[in-house]
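Handoff note, outgoing to incoming analyst
You'll be picking up this chain. Sequence as last confirmed:
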Amino acid sequence: MTARVLDHPGFAPELLALSAVEALGPGAADWAERLRARYPDASADGLARLATRRFVRSAGAGGAAAALAGFFAPLAELASVLWTHSNLVLHLAAAYGRDPAHADRAVDLLVLTQVHPDPESARAALDAARAADDPVEGAWPRAAEAAWRLAAPLTAQAGGWVALRLAARLLPGAAVLAAALGDAAAADRLAARAVAAYRPRQSQSNHSRGSSA
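Most recent structure output, in case you need it:
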């Protein structure tokens, strides 16, 4: 997959979304099946809360670890975020009865992580990525383009890394704390978008009425 991403850097997010569904989807399905077998009365919302807590914590831990990576901190954070966000979305899909290993989950990943604005553009990009044949020339330009497209959803945090470096000089441990809180908050926002997408409409209406009661 790394070689294919470097051969076709313009499709880096799409290729990694396909890979994530293939690699992580079956594990998410097994997780949901085990919990339903152990707790037959557990609701989909209950499973979703478990998944959200698990991967929000994981995002915070990953952000803290990335902040300790020095010069490579942004790259370490990117790897951590990609893994955590993919797992979070696929586990939430499984919690609400969607097949996390289905090809449509790659579309969901691209839309929910805001790489694409809608399912139609995500599907078109995935189709183009699958059909891509001849590699793009130039190793370094390919790697740079791949890194840029992969980091696009995180550009809002780019200024945050500057602030972290300044904070680290003034307050020992501030960078680690800020990275942990920031990545946990980003995962929590992603979970909210995924739940809104996967929760059945009737369940959403009942949840809203219950919240307002």
